[in-house]
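Study this protein:
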Amino acid sequence: MRLSECLGRRNALIVNGWINVFGALLEYFSKAMASPELLIFGRLVLGAVMGLSTGLVPMYLMEITPTKYRGAAGTLHMVAVAFSDWFSLFIGLPEILGNTQSWPLAFAFPGIPALLLCCILPFCPESPKFTLFTRGDASKAVLDLKRFVDDNEAEYMFEALEREAIMINEGPGTYKQIFTERSLRVPLLISIMVMITQQFTGCSAVFAYSTDMFLNAGIRGQMARFSTLAVGIAYFLFALTAPFLIERAGRRILLIFQLSMCSLSLTLLSFFMWLQNFGGHVWAGYATIGALIFYMCVYGIGCAVPWLITGELFPTKYRASAITVAVSVAWSLSFVVSTCYLPFQQLVGNSLSYIPFIIVSGCGAVFVYWVLPETRGKQAMDIVREIRQRARSLTSGQSPMRIQPIKDTRSCDETTPLLSTLIKWLNQTYSSRGELKTEAELNMVWSMIVSCVAIGAIFGALSTKPLSERLGRRNGLIFNGIFNVIGALLEYLAKPLSSPEILVIGRIILGVNMGLTSGLVPMYLMEITPTKYRGSAGTCHMVAVAFSDWFSMLLALPEVFGGDETWPIAFGFPGIPAFLLCCILPFCPESPKFSLLIKQDRVATLNDIGRLVDVHEGQQMYEDLTREKTNSDTNENISVSYLFTSKELRMPLIICVWVMVAQQFTGAAAIFAYSTNMFLNAGLEPQIARFSTLGISIIYFLFACSSVHLIERKGRRALSLFQLSTVTASLTAMSIFTWAQAYYNINLASYGAIAALLAYMCGYGIGSPIPWMIASEIFPTKYRSSAVTIAISVAWSLVFIISLAYLPFKQWVGVSASYLPFIIVSAISTCFVYFLLPETRNKHTNEIAQDIQFRSDTIRRYSLNILPSVGSSMGISPSNEASEDMRQHLIPRTKSFNSPSTPPYKYSSFAFTPPGETSENFLTKFWGQKR
């Protein structure tokens, strides 16, 4: 957009037009010169033209138009884009220019309107805003205005421009100002968010699959292509209505309507495609077409709004820079979505591939409703003023929906006395140094003290692989214990030395310790344990975490070590068990898997096994390790990046990462943080409320203890499903009860919230250990440390993000609505675990790998619609060689990463099954219902 500031809006468009002509010529001559490189270069040039056009055209049109017609003018650009979309489909037909001989004409056609534009634009006036604000030529600005409107309108528009000029400094704004000036932060956030929601409405995905929808409905070849063209025309016609609707309904209403209806139509589209693929319903194919047409209509109505929002939200001084940022985000996301959609579609299937678009469109509609002001008929300064007012109201806990937190006049001393104690100490420490800190600054220091643990944990998690493979599992834990002792000592000495900085350093070191612990401990415990007890051993880590949670609450009570003088003991206490661990671990055996598979020391392996189990069990364990060593090349140096690039490891890695995401989005931190307030709202005294929160933590610990016994009886998958479904239901109930209590003053609702809290703690405790042990079970030894490193890093990164984002989010939307993200992610994760996570109980990594591959292939094959029964019911001939070749190309033939080969699957008329199983037996186990 620097081009628009140097040359002006009109002249920049002329330059852009000539670049368009140049790119079109390159594309045209690529066939004659037999040069694909020339075609690629021409496409890059045309891409630059498109990027410039999306910024320059709306800016120019809106700056030369009176305020009352500004919206209609701003939509003309996207109307032209909609026209070009269907016209490109038209000339791309084989009957027009899409054949072997004439395709260069189709590629070069955009150069014709660009050439006409270059001939017409020199006779058009420059933008009056550019002439006045950037060039400083008032007389030329008046002349430009009079070429557009009559004298009275020109005088009114010039007065408005002068008022705007008084309120801003001369000269264009810089990119640095866009990001650093506080008054521009919210407008920039709005501009970027509406661009994100526009790109995530899924238009590219729907267009790409539209022809297949007509084919699946029984419409053949040529007619399917013409039907797609007709849908493109419908999109264009509804885009034509935008210039008329945008000045009547307004930008905000149109955008909310578009996003909410896109979310609804994509939901219907996904549902009907699922019915068509899995149920074989013929009518679902026609319903899919109806949902497709509905989507195109609603998308066309609001497609122009995001591209003109930035031009209206920012004053002229900052407009070019802001549009540059917003348009860059839009095209970057367009590239990301177009690159990632096809692999994602192949992974989850057509019907499920729209879920991200559904979620983002729905959330985008809510965001626009809360944050975006109506800009119709308003000057830039009026819009900026309204944005500031809305931002102040939102940050103070209010919103247009009046979703407010529960009013609570209780002090921080009643709910979190340790926080008050620390704030008091920080205030005294800085005062003794002669530094006076405001309450906001003290809260910021406290936030840093809290969040730096998660930062340290991220680094600790990333260090899991090198530490565990160089020092070993046991020695890595000893080294990690020393870290814990050092961090605890620093925290203990922070008060005597009057140094908050030492407290922060100690917290960071303890964070590194926590990150290493969460990776090393489950890995070590599961590698020294026989297969039949592996699950119980893997849960011990989270049982210890649950114990430390309630024990730390006990120590932090004012009656124990949470007082003004004794709080350093509470902070330094973790060093005591860590010191004992460092004394005990040297007498414990090393992991036999590490000794054999990484150190290649058979003698040490036999000694380690002999110290762990009896002779018979030891022989079985050694044979299993030898078999695993034979099936894996442990001489390879497996890097973390290999897990992302290896095709056969992709699905196991996705499972590991997703179960960690699901665990962090169960909202445990938010529930623990607000539990005391729930008891206070139920009428309990502050001290009793704190002890009640302690009791809730003990319940969580007791149910976590029960997982040690349940995990080998019920299995990992069943426990994880129970946890996620229980958490989803209890969070939903908690949200409803807190909402009823806040807005209708229903006293019984507070007791309902406590009951939901109890149900949450029970369900969360039972399944809390599962995610931390999954990576150690589904990956062979040579990949294990890398997989654990990735999973733990994701977990602690999410802990850091959620801990920073939850409190502002809660203040913005209120307590009851703040649980919604956790509810949504937990519900989606329940479905994910049900379909993709295999049962790992008493299975070796080779069996688990085959099960994962089988599940992912099964879902992929269903989603690619290769079932013969469905195909025959829709009248699609299975003998179509082209489509069959495409299906064979899209369905990967992967091998298990732990065995030289994987037995081929058998095919039936319903699905394919693993060797030795019938379709009926498999479906009974896999889908939970008989055929």
Remarks:
- Residues 845-926 form one domain.
